[in-house]
Structure formats: C-alpha cells, structure tokens
Amino acid sequence: MNNLKRKISKLMVAIMVVLSLDVSGYSGFAINGNEKVYAAAAKTKKGIYEGFVNRLNFPNYALELYDSLYDNSLDAGGYLIDEKNVDRVEEGCYVHDVTTETGVVPASSNYAIESFIQNQVGKSDVPSNIYQVYFAFYFDHPEVFWIKQSPKLRYSYSVKLNKTTGNLEYTIIYSIVIKDTYANFDLRDTQKYKTPADIIKAMAKRDSLVKKISKKVARKDSYSTVCALNKYLVKINNYNSLVLANVPGETLYTHQAMCALEGNKGKNGPICMAYAAAFKLICDNLGIPCINVCGDATTANGTTGGHQWNNVKLDDGKWYAIDVTWNDTGHKVDAYLCVGSETKTAEVAFRKSHKMTNKGYTIYTGFTNQPELSKGKYSQNACKIVLAKKVYKYTGKKIKAAFKVYDKKKKLIKRKFYKVKYKNNKKCGRGEITIKFKGKYKNLKTKKVYFDIVPRTGSIDSIMPFKNSAYVKLKSVKGVSGYEIKCSSDLSFKRASSKTVTVKKNATDTLVEGLESGKTYHFRVRTYVKKNGKRYYSDYSNVSGVVIN
Q1: Within 10 A of 58 (CB to CB), how many other CB atoms are there?
Q2: How many angstroms separate the CA atoms of 437 and 282, rounded?
Q3: Reduced to 3 states, what is the DSSP secondary structure of residue 80?
C-alpha cells in the first residue's frame, strides 16, 4: 500500500508532455500519412450555404477558432501577423489554445499515462474539427493571403490527483501552432513576408489593389462586372510556367490572391488557387456573391488533377461557374465564363470536366452543400438595374432600397412596367429586390439585385487606464452580434501600431492589455451583425483617448 502511495504521489507532480501533430506543407490536402489517427470531424448540415463555415455542424470551440483567426488577421495586434500575440510559448512553439478535454485516467492506465493520452487524442474529434474549420476559414477569407493552407497542431496534457475522489484526472489542451522555432515551421509565408512589418506592408498594398481593380472592373450589373474582372486577371497574368512544365519549384506566393492581384508571369505566375482567391476577393469587395470551389478537373487530353474555380450569383438569382485559370490557359478568354452545369465546352459538360469535392483532407467530410449551379449558361438581360446606394443603416423598419431600371438603349423603364418584391429588408444582413417585368417588357427575364443593411453605430462609455492596460466600457446596442474595439497609439489607426479586441454581444466591457506605460492610446468601436458567416459592420464611433499608467 505504501509503495502504491509513493507512486501516486509522484504522479501528483505536474506532468506536462508536449507532442506534435505534424501537419504541415502546402502542396496537397492530405494529412501527411496520419489519416487514420484522428476521429471523424463535424457532419454536413442540412440545407444549402454559401460560406464554408456554415456547411458543417461545427462545435462552438471550432466556430470560436474561426472568429479568432479573423479577429487576429486585422492588424499588428493579431497573432496571425505577429506571433508575440499568442496565448503562450511552449518549448519554442508559439501557440493559440483552441479547447480542452478533461477526464479520469482509468486505474489500469496509471502507469502508462502517455499511451493513454495518445489514445484519447486519437479517439477525439477535436483535431479533425480544427483542421476542417481552418480549411473553411482559408477558403472563406482569401484576404488573409499570407497563411498556409494547412496548419500544425499540438496538444499538451497535465495529470493530477483529486484528493476528494482519489481519481487521477487529466486535462488535454489542443492548440494551433503559429510558429515552431525548433521544427522550422511557420503558419505564415515567411519566405515572402519575413517579418510582421512585411505582412502589414503587403496588407496595405492588398487594400490599394482591391480598391484600384474594383474601380476598374465595376459595371452597372454583376454580369458585366465579373466579365470585366475575368478579362483583367487574364490580361495581367500568365499561368505558372513551372507547373505547366511539371517542374517543381513554385512558391507559396503563387498560391495566394496577392500573386494574381499584382499580376505575375513565368515562374512567378499564379496557379488556380491564386486566380480563384483573387477573383473572390474582388467580388466580395463589390458585393457580388462569390464562392471558391475545389475538386478534380479533367482537361481535353484526359488529364485529371486538383483544381479550383469560382461560382458567382448573378442578377437572375442563379449561380454560374467561372474558371479564370482555364480562361487564361485556353484559347478563349471567355470559354469558362458564367457557365452552367450542363454548358458544354469542347463537347464536355462543365459538371463532368469540373467535379466539385470541396475537401480539405481526403478522409473528412467535403463541404459539398453549396448553392446549385444553373443548368445553362447565363443569358444577359437587355436591361440594367442601378441602385441609389448599396448600404443602408438598420432602422427597425423595412427598408425599400431605391433603384432605377434602364432598357438596352439606356432609356428609363417606367414603374408601371414591372413588379417589385423585397425580401430580408428589415434585419441586418443582405436585402434582396426582385423585379418582374410586364406589359411591353414582359419578355425580359426577372432580375434580382442586393443591398446590405448594417447595424447602428456603437459608442465608448468610458476608458479607465491601468498599468500596461485599459478597461473599456461600451454603450450597449440592441440586436448586434458583437463589438470590435480598435486601439492604436497612432491617431490615424495605422495597422502597424493598432490592435483589435472583439467583445461578444452579451458583454459591454473588456480589458485591453499589452499597452505601453506613459503612451497615449486612441480607441474607437464599431458594432457588427454576423449573418451566414459574414460580418456586417457599422461605421466607427468617435475616437476617445487615454494615457496609460
């Protein structure tokens, strides 16, 4: 008995063992041969969804990770930009903690703790859910261009004796690795962006390019806009010459939206991922519903391989496919432009040449419950709908967005020649207008246009400075999903000197930490409503400043 007590007392000392779930690399979707180690992830939701994050039944911790990745991609205060902002550093690993699992170590495993924990991790669905939700984030947010396609995970565990029950209790902490010094791993593309300052600089260039390209390709209707965007991306890029020649050596950069936005050719030319990411990024900015799609594509000579393209929702309310990559590498710039599932190119239907799988990892559930493609190719209407404005503030009442309708001769079509129906036009989110023609215009196809409803602007109630921190209290705003506080030592709120703190809707106060003593910091807040995985933001509040103790 005394011998057993001595052994148990040794186990009462904190045991911390760190093991790596080595999943790294960007060249493929597979989990480096460990495909049978982790339990299955979340299952497919019923229904059809645009955003990848909405398509699976993710547990709360996975959805919180998705939000955390977004929040930490906005400025220098985010861990996706600067690893110093992570939760903790562990054996040279900068990690963000995702969730924990707890339980009791069976008596039969008291002397084989490590094996028992490994077995628990193998049975857990946590790693799978983290991989899957990260993949969803990667596809939903091409603006976060500097991160790799697949993360590396770690788990650590501790075991202690519960003196009341006499049980050995364990806690497993699952984390996502931002940087592993000893394993020479970094979630960010450190080959192209060697420092956080390089990422911040590239983000500024991204914003400038998105603004410039959006202005250049924007037209009065969504079809003309996506046609112009396809043409522009094809014009400034040539598909990667190394990949075309089946020669290894393309860099992470050639997979990123920035590669296609900046315009590149030869060995620096973009691959399909970059074309699709850039296309979605511009569509997102212009308010055109667009999703990334991945799967297997078969060329005219019968070669099949992994591929990415886009689907867009046009003004008839239907979805169409656009493959900028194949438009660039083919003989016709519009061969795969706004086509339907049955549209034939080189005598092959699109659904056969492009088989959607939407799988991040071969063994896990695919994100396949996306909007269905129209069967036929888009047929342009001989009219245009022009909204008076695309964004409205929430009022609590139904909003009837103003618009005008013009025929092919640019002549205004009178109101008596069409019926109007509004949908989703009261709450924050995306409102829809359906225009059905009648009378002498009855042969025109029904049109749909969209506008956004954003929440009311929030405000800061008070700021109390503390040592290297500030306590910020906000005024409550009804109906919002949360608040986004921006804090900066620079009055213009430049990314390099800013940090963003998100507060959930049930709280109106938070402690902003990591501030320099004696410095003046400026604070502002905006509210947001989350709808179908997308955030709809209010304007920022007035700025408040305080000197930190």
Answers
A1: 21
A2: 30
A3: coil
Q: What would you measure as the largest C-alpha separation in the chain, in angstroms?
A: 98
pLDDT digits (tens, 9 = 90+) for 500-533: 999 999 899 999 999 999 999 999 999 999 998 8
Q: Flag whether 370 is in a domain.
A: no
The backbone torsions φ and ψ at residue 478, rounded to the nearest 5 degrees and listed phi first, read -70, 145
124 lies in the same domain as 15: yes
pLDDT tens figures, 199-231: 999 999 999 999 999 999 999 899 999 999 999
204 and 155 in a single domain? The answer is: no
- Per-residue pLDDT at 182 exceeds 50: yes
Q: Taking residues 39-45, what's their average pLDDT?
A: 83
**CB-based contact 37:124 (threshold 8 Å):** no
Co-location of 209 and 334 in the same domain: yes
CA nearest to 161, candidates 236, 124, 118, 110: 110
Contacts (Cβ under 8 Å, ≥6 apart) of 241: 265, 266, 267, 269
Instruction: Report how far apart the first and last C-alpha atoms of the chain are (Å, whole number).
Output: 57
Q: Could you give phi then psi for residue 251, rounded to 5 degrees?
A: -95, 170
In a domain, 67, yes or no: yes
Q: How crowded is residue 408: how many other Cβ atoms within 10 Å of its Cβ?
A: 11
Domain boundaries, position 493: 460-547
Does the reported pTM lie above 0.85? yes
> Would residue 374 count as lying in a domain?
no
Distance CA 242, CA 250 (A): 7
